[in-house]
């Protein structure tokens, strides 16, 4: 698999040196053939904030140089979505899967929701898309792997 990804990565960079190669596999073995890790679909049966924070920590430890795509779908309801939109810049690059309403509940997005998205994305730009706390250095300070 790594040989295959290496070919894709090298050829993409030859054609477009600023290409962004995303993977769904946060593993150190693949760190040199990817630029971004996607946290993958949200499990609506779990606490979204806790689960996605854990996924972001795993991705940051496994591939510390990769940018993290925080994902954003599915969502159980708008309140959960709003909470996660607010957290996303702390984890990595915010994703936006909804433009007019939350698909699972049909709750419409309002001007307040769009303002939240703008603020979230502004904070992410300030953090450079790397999140507020890239965990490897913090983990080392605490003596964790």
From TrEMBL:
Q: Kindly provide the name given to this protein in its UniProt entry.
A: Uncharacterized protein
What is the organism of origin for this protein?
Gordoniibacillus kamchatkensis
């Amino acid at each position: 698999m790594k040989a295959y990804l290496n070919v894709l990565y090298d050829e993409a960079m030859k054609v477009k040196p600023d290409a962004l190669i995303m993977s769904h596999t946060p593993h150190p073995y693949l760190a040199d053939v990817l630029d971004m890790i996607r946290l993958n679909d949200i499990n609506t049966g779990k606490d979204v904030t806790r689960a996605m924070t854990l996924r972001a920590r795993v991705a940051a430890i496994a591939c510390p140089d990769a940018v993290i795509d925080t994902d954003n779908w599915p969502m159980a309801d708008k309140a959960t979505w709003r909470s996660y939109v607010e957290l996303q810049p702390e984890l990595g690059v915010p994703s936006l899967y909804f433009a007019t309403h939350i698909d699972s509940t049909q709750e419409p997005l309002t001007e307040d929701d769009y303002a939240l998205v703008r603020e979230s994305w502004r904070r992410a730009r300030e953090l450079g898309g790397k999140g507020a706390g890239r965990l490897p250095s913090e983990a080392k300070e605490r003596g964790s792997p």
